[in-house]
Specification:
Length: about 140
């Protein structure tokens, strides 16, 4: 046997072990991030549902209730999240915003939790208040 063979073998085994450990750490980290993102999205969805319920209560008390002027592009999620004027409420670590544009028979709710944001739309009829449809934007 040549001198240094055991040293080279042990260095190669340690190097391979370090590469495998680094890969394992990356996989665990990616799983952690994706689970947190899914949880934030689910909580944001629940907050958006709570916002729709709040909006339904407001409309049942006052059918003419609105929070903002009509926007020229309906169902624009980016505008609803960032710029629309709405009734905002906090719930737990997240918050929701309820938006009804003047003269339109649609109610929007934006739920936000962490990095997750969900926009829900509810189409309704007045007198008496009745939900016709709802969807996620």
């Amino acid at each position: 046997m040549k001198k240094g063979f055991a040293l080279m073998t042990s260095i190669m085994i340690i190097s391979a072990s370090l590469v495998l450990c680094a890969l394992l750490v990356k996989v665990v980290y990616n799983c952690h991030v994706s689970v947190n993102a899914a949880l934030d999205r689910q909580l944001a969805f629940s907050l958006a549902e709570a916002g729709l319920e709040k909006g339904k209560v407001e409309l049942s008390h006052n059918p003419a209730w609105y929070t903002d002027q009509p926007y020229f592009r309906p169902d624009n999620a980016e505008w609803l999240i960032k710029y629309a004027i709405g009734q905002e409420n906090s719930l737990g670590d997240g918050h929701f915003k309820v938006i009804r544009e003047k003269g339109r028979d649609a109610l929007y709710s934006v739920g936000c939790q962490g990095r997750g944001a969900v926009v829900l739309k509810l189409v309704f009829s007045n007198s008496p208040f009745e939900t016709l449809a709802w969807q996620e934007l």
